[in-house]
C-alpha cells in the first residue's frame, strides 16, 4: 500500500510541475516517507501536506516534515550533483537527508545538524530504518559543521532571518545555498550562487513558509486586533498599531485581475520591498473579524506610525480575482500600495552581500540591512 501511495503522491507533484528533473523524481520515488513519520497513518504520510512532529507546551509547532511539494521544489533549486558534499541545516525527521543521499550518490556526503538532541536521535533512527547513511550532528545550525567544509551545497530547512558568517565561510567558492529567507515579513526560498567571496546572487525565489529558526532575530510581530498580526523588521517605522483597525477603512479597487490570489505574492511584493521602507506582512486567522487580507496567512502590507494598508481581493464572474487595497488612518499608504500593484515591471533581481563588521552599509531604497548580510533588490 505504501508503494502505491508514494507513487500517487509523486505523480501528483510531477503533474503540478513541482518536480522537473528525473533525478529528483527518482529520489522521491525511492525514499519511503512513512519510515520517517512513524506516528502518522499511511495516508497522512503520503499526503501532500506538512506534518507537525513536535510542539511546545503552548501547542506551537517546533519541528515538522515539510510539504512534499516544497521539499521537491527546494531540491530542484539545490541542483545536487553526484559526489557533492552537502550540509543540511535542520535535521527534521531525516527524510530530506535521505533524499539528499540519493542525489549525492555513494561518492558524495550528507551532513545534517539540528539543535534539538531529540530531533537528531529520531532522524538517526529513521535513516537507519531506511538504509541511508548521513552524518548527524547535534548543535547550533547557525554555526554549521566546519569539520566537513567546504560544502558544494548548503540547504536550510527552517526560516532564516539572516545568513550567519559560518554559512558564508563553509560554502565552497562554486557553491549554492538554498534557504527560506525572511525579510519584511515575507519568506522566499532563495537559490543563492556564490558570485564572489562576499556576494550571493539569487537564481530563483519561490514562495514558501517555514517554522523560523530558534533564537533571536530582527523580526517584530504586532497584534492590532484579535486574530490579526502585522509582521515587520525591527528597523522599520511601524508604530504599535493599537486600535488601527477600529478606524474607518478606505478601500480602492485597482481593476487588476489575476488568475489566482497567490499572484500577489510574486513580483508585486518584491517590488514593494525594493521601493518602500514600510513594507511588511499582515496575517489573519479564522477568529479575525476586523481584517480580511487577500491571502490570510501572508499578504503584503504597508505600516508606519500613522496607519496600515494591505491587499484585499474579490472574486469576479470570469474566475479571476480583482486586487484592491484597504487602509486605516493611511490614505498615503493606500495610494502607495495601489501604485505598486499597478506597476507592470518584472520582479527586481536579488543579491545578498556579506555585511562585514564595522562596514558602512549602503543607504537608500532597495537595500535591507541585517546583522551579517545586506539584501539588495534592484530593477
Descriptive report:
- It is a single chain.
- Helix 2 (22-30) crosses helix 5 (95-104).
- With 379 residues, the chain is an alpha+beta fold.
- It has helices at 2-15, 22-30, 42-45, 68-78, 95-104, 117-130, 165-170, 267-275, 331-342, and strands at 51-55, 61-65, 85-89, 109-114, 135-138, 151-156, 171-183, 186-196, 199-207, 219-225, 228-233, 249-258, 279-284, 299-303, 308-315, 321-328, 349-354, 367-369, 373-378.
- The protein has two domains: 2-49 and 67-207, Vaccinia Virus protein VP39 (Rossmann fold, 3-Layer(aba) Sandwich); 224-342, TATA-Binding Protein (2-Layer Sandwich).
- A hairpin with a 5-residue loop joins strand 15 (308-315) and strand 16 (321-328).
List keywords for this structure.
379 residues; alpha+beta; TATA-Binding Protein; 2 domains; 10-stranded mixed beta sheet; globular
Structure described in brief:
Helix content is about 25%, strand content about 35%. It has about 375 residues and is an alpha+beta fold. It has two domains: about 1-50 and about 65-205, Rossmann fold; about 225-340, TATA-Binding Protein, CATH 3.30.310.
Task: Please outline the helices and strands.
Layout: H1 2-15, H2 22-30, H3 42-45, E1 51-55, E2 61-65, H4 68-78, E3 85-89, H5 95-104, E4 109-114, H6 117-130, E5 135-138, E6 151-156, H7 165-170, E7 171-183, E8 186-196, E9 199-207, E10 219-225, E11 228-233, E12 249-258, H8 267-275, E13 279-284, E14 299-303, E15 308-315, E16 321-328, H9 331-342, E17 349-354, E18 367-369, E19 373-378
Helix pairs in contact: 2-5
Amino acid at each position: 500500500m505504501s508503494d502505491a501511495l508514494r507513487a500517487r503522491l509523486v505523480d501528483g507533484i510531477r503533474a503540478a510541475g513541482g518536480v522537473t528533473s528525473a533525478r529528483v523524481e527518482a529520489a522521491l520515488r525511492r525514499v519511503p516517507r512513512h519510515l520517517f513519520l512513524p506516528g502518522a497513518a499511511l495516508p497522512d504520510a503520503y499526503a501532500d501536506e506538512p506534518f507537525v512532529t513536535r510542539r511546545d507546551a503552548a501547542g506551537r509547532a517546533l519541528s515538522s516534515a515539510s510539504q512534499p511539494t516544497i521539499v521537491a521544489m527546494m531540491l530542484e533549486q539545490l541542483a545536487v550533483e553526484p559526489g557533492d558534499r552537502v550540509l543540511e541545516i535542520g535535521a527534521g525527521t531525516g527524510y530530506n537527508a535521505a533524499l539528499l543521499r540519493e542525489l549525492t550518490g555513494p561518492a558524495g556526503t550528507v551532513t545534517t545538524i539540528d539543535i534539538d538532541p531529540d530531533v537528531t536521535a529520531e532522524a538517526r533512527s529513521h535513516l537507519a530504518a531506511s538504509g541511508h547513511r548521513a552524518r548527524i550532528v547535534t548543535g547550533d545550525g547557525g554555526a554549521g559543521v566546519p569539520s566537513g567544509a567546504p560544502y558544494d551545497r548548503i540547504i536550510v530547512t527552517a526560516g532564516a532571518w539572516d545568513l550567519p558568517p559560518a554559512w558564508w565561510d563553509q560554502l565552497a567558492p562554486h557553491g549554492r545555498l538554498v534557504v527560506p529567507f525572511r525579510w519584511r515579513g515575507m519568506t522566499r526560498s532563495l537559490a543563492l550562487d556564490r558570485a564572489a567571496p562576499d556576494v550571493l546572487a539569487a537564481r530563483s525565489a519561490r514562495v514558501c513558509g517555514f517554522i523560523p529558526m530558534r533564537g533571536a532575530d530582527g523580526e517584530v510581530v504586532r497584534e492590532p486586533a484579535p486574530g490579526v498580526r502585522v509582521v515587520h523588521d525591527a528597523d522599520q517605522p511601524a508604530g504599535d498599531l493599537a486600535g488601527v483597525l477600529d478606524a474607518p477603512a478606505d478601500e480602492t479597487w485597482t481593476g487588476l485581475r489575476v488568475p489566482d490570489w497567490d499572484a500577489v505574492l510574486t513580483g508585486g511584493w518584491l517590488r514593494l520591498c525594493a521601493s518602500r521602507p514600510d513594507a511588511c506582512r499582515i496575517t489573519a486567522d479564522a477568529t479575525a473579524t476586523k481584517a480580511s487580507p487577500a491571502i490570510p496567512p501572508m499578504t503584503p502590507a504597508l505600516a508606519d506610525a500613522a496607519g496600515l494598508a494591505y491587499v484585499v481581493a474579490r472574486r469576479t464572474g470570469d474566475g479571476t480575482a480583482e486586487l484592491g487595497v484597504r487602509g486605516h488612518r493611511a490614505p498615503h499608504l493606500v495610494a502607495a500600495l495601489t501604485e505598486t500593484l499597478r506597476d507592470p515591471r518584472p520582479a527586481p533581481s536579488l543579491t545578498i552581500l556579506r555585511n562585514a563588521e564595522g562596514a558602512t552599509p549602503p543607504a537608500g531604497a532597495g537595500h535591507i540591512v541585517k546583522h551579517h548580510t545586506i539584501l539588495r533588490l534592484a530593477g
